[in-house]
Each structure stands twice: as C-alpha cells, then as structure tokens.
Amino acid sequence: MLAPGSTIGILGGGQLGRMLAVAALQLGYKVVGYAPEGDNVAADACSDFVTADWDDAAALARFAEACDVVTWEFENVPLATVAALPQHLLACPPRALEVAQDRLSEKAFAIDLGGVPAPYAAVESPEELAAAILGIGTPGILKTARDGYDGKGQWRVRSGVEAGALAFPGVTCIYEGFILYETEFSVILVRGADGQVKFWDSTANLHDGGMLAQSILPAGALVEAQVSAARELARKVANALGYVGVLTLEFFATREGPVFNEMAPRVHNSGHWTIEGAATSQFENHIRAIAGLPLGGTKTRFEAIEMRNIVGADALDAHLILAEPGEPHLHLYGKREAREGRKMGHVTRVGHALK
Ligand code: AMP
Q1: What is the distance between the alpha carbons of residues 199 and 189, in angstroms, rounded to a whole number?
Q2: What pLDDT sits at residue 212?
Q3: Taking Cα atoms as reference points, which of 39, 36, 65 lies closest to residue 50?
Q4: DSSP letter at 4?
Q5: Which of 22, 181, 186, 337 has the fewest CB atoms lying closer than 10 Å?
Q6: What is the pLDDT of residue 164?
C-alpha cells in the first residue's frame, strides 16, 4: 500500500489528470504531472508539473525521481516514454496502452476474447478503401488507426463515390461498416492489483459529431439486457492485460447484441457521473487501485443521473447553471481558451436518492 504523503506521477495533463489529482490529494497523496507544452489543466492540482516533450530523457528521469508510482490519463502516451521509466514505478502493464493505441490491435484483442466489433478492414490506400467498401458495403466510417479522438480522424462514407472523393490520409486507416445501433453505452470497471474487479452501472451515451455529449442512467432496457455480456468481455480484457486501475470499453447496443467499439485504458468521460452519482468515483477508485488501497463500492446512489459536457463557448457563462433548480453539480476544467468543440467542463444532475 502506498503510504500517505507518497507521490503519484501522472502522464498527461488534461482534465482527466486534473480530476485524478483531486482524488489523489483527498487520499493524502502528492501528485506530479508530466506532459508536453499545452493547456495542461492538471497542473493546477499538482504540486509539481514537468512540461517537456515525451522523448526528453532528462525530464523523464527528473519526473521518475519524484514519483513513487506512475499512471497515465492519456492513452496516446508514446510507448517509448513509458519504456524509459523505471518499470517498477508502473502501476499497470504498458501492454494496455499498446493494445488501445491502435484500433486494429484493440479490435483483434477483443475478438480473441469473444468480442464482436463492427465489420472492418485495414486500409492503406484509396484502392484498398474501394476494396473494403466492396466487401463491407456502405454506409461506413473511415478512421485513422491511431491518434484519433472525439470524432477527429474520422470520415463518414455514404457511398463509393463519396469515398473516391476523399483525400485519403497518408496513414494506416480502418474502414468500418456503420452500425445501426439503438444506444451507445460503456462498461467502466476498476481492477485491483490482486485481480478484484468492480463495475459501475452502464450509462447510455449520446454523442454529437463523434464526441460524447451526455451520459444517462438508467440506460434503458436494451442496454440493461446487454450489460452482462459486455461486462464479461471487459473483465476478460482486464484480466488478459493484467490491468490495474480503471478501464473503459465502449459498445453499441444493437438488436443482435453488444457490438464492441473501442477501449480506453483510463478513466473516461462517460464515468464523470460517478463523482456524485456512485459510492466511489472512477477517479478515486483508480487512485485506490494504483496505490494498492482497498477498492471502494461502485453502487449508483440515485434513481436517475444525467451528465452533460460543457463544450466551447458555453463554458463562458456556465456558472449560471448553478442558479438552476435541482442542485446541479458543475465541474469546470480551467482551460484557458474556450475553442469550439473543446470539452471545457461538465454538469451532473441527480434524481432521488436510492434507498
Ligand atoms: P470512436 O472514436 O470510434 O469512439 O467513434 C466516435 C463515435 O462515432 C462513436 O461513439 C459513435 O457515435 C460513432 N461511430 C464510430 N464508429 C461507428 C460505427 N462503426 N457505426 C456507427 N457509429 C460509429
């Protein structure tokens, strides 16, 4: 067990790191962050923050020197960065990052464990895209295999003609058949170093332009009927990776069952509701897991919960939300610039307490 006063290192400087740091502070730890130059809002909650490129060996050594354990809040931390750290500091095997950084490898990993993804093909060129469309059909989505997030690096493809007009990105891509789903949902679990696994309830997730807009509980009958199969896959993934901490798998609930979309080896936007809505939040349980502390309960505390992201300029007058009825819980991330399409904060509203 990590003693009080120990230091947790977090790779990545965004809002997930900020909320992890708040949870770590509450448990009596210090936090040191590391990320390249940028709007590193996690730094506000860290006692020290190293701003350096991912390949800066001297800065990484300085960071490692300050830490008793290291975790990440960003799945695209280069593997070489993680490999450069003393391996005993890593709370979770880096294989989880390796698998999740590439859409092709995460799908293959899930299939091996019995998961069902959308029909897909790897595509490296316009010719291969045309062939994939012949095999899989339209509509579909072309995605870069690596580095995409929040709908970036993705293009809807309604027809072969439309695909022909696309400026093909010069990187490995994946073409996926478009899934006609009823609802999107996520399975969020925490796994301790001893292999204990706990799940939070699954929310229905509503997206806007490829980015999460809202998470809602209860998620509805179709999701509820599919959660146990989805959890089974998530548990297998976590066990196979020897995972420690919070892991998220995203699914489409279809008439034919849950279709696996992607995994995130970290706390997740669709789990922000757990701060007020669950016995223990995803952030606190992640810190507990990597610190070797007993995991907290994950039970939902209210009959109904809604988490809504605050995006772009909507953040400028977000404090007005506090005047609304129903005791909304507002979280702002302290980002300097309210750019369009940027997650600036979120608000969680809860219904009646569960007995
Ligand atoms: P992703 O980055 O893969 O999570 O994609 C972002 C969002 O785009 C998803 O949450 C869905 O709303 C939508 N999307 C991605 N892939 C598919 C698909 N194969 N079929 C239908 N919708 C998709």
Answers
A1: 4
A2: 97
A3: 36
A4: T
A5: 337
A6: 81
Residue having the nearest C-alpha atom to atom 10 of ligand 1: 210
The Å distance, Cα 194 to ligand 1 centre, comes to 33
Tell me the backbone φ, ψ of residue 198, rounded to 5 degrees. Answer: -130, 145
Task: Identify the three-state secondary structure at position 283.
Answer: helix
Query: Ligand 1 centroid vs 149 CA: distance in angstroms?
Result: 10
Task: List the chain residues with pLDDT less than 50.
Answer: none
Task: Write down the pLDDT at residue 162.
Answer: 85
∠ CA 317-335-38, rounded to 5°: 160
Atom of ligand 1 nearest to the CA of 179: 20
CATH homologous superfamily of 119-177:
ATP-grasp fold, A domain (3.30.1490.20)
Q: Is 75 in the pocket of ligand 1 (CB under 6 A)?
A: no
pLDDT of residue 28: 98
pLDDT confidence of residue 149: 78
Topology (CATH) of 183-350? D-amino Acid Aminotransferase; Chain A, domain 1 (3.30.470)
Q: How many angstroms does the Cα of residue 275 sit away from the middle of ligand 1? A: 26
Determine whether the shortest distance from the Cβ of 262 to ligand 1 is under 6 A: yes
